[in-house]
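ok here's PA2169 family four-helix-bundle protein, seq below lol
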Amino acid sequence: MKFTEEISNKLNELLVKNYDAEKGYINAMNNVEQSDLKMFFKRCATERSQFAKELRTEILQYGEIPEDSGSFKGTMHRNWMSLKATFSSNNEDAILEEAIRGEKESLEEYKDFLKDRTLPPSIDALLIKHKNAIQGAINMEKVQEELIS
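and the structure came out like this:
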């Protein structure tokens, strides 16, 4: 199966999203007080860092050049999370809501990419693994949200 520039571009988009998500989770971790919530955000940040490494490896394996940083949109989202946390009466709930929103967007991007039935099997398997983990994080975030509400 030929690795196309289109596939490389899409993988780079996911790579940037994962950089953004990792930084967002670190930001969230630094803006909450509950230790279990801090640990949850830390685990999510670590997981997203691992996703980024896996995507970088896949891109490099096919002779393409991976992106090396997050996006302006991601920076703006993190700034919004910090601002919202500052002015919200329930910081942790607001931060969790934003994290869920960001994860849902990420999940949709993975689902859209997976609709491409011409992906090499290694990429398809990697994206399915990431998609399932993101869905699991969303489910856990919703549970956490219920616990702090």
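fwiw The chain has five helices and no strands. kinda neat tbh
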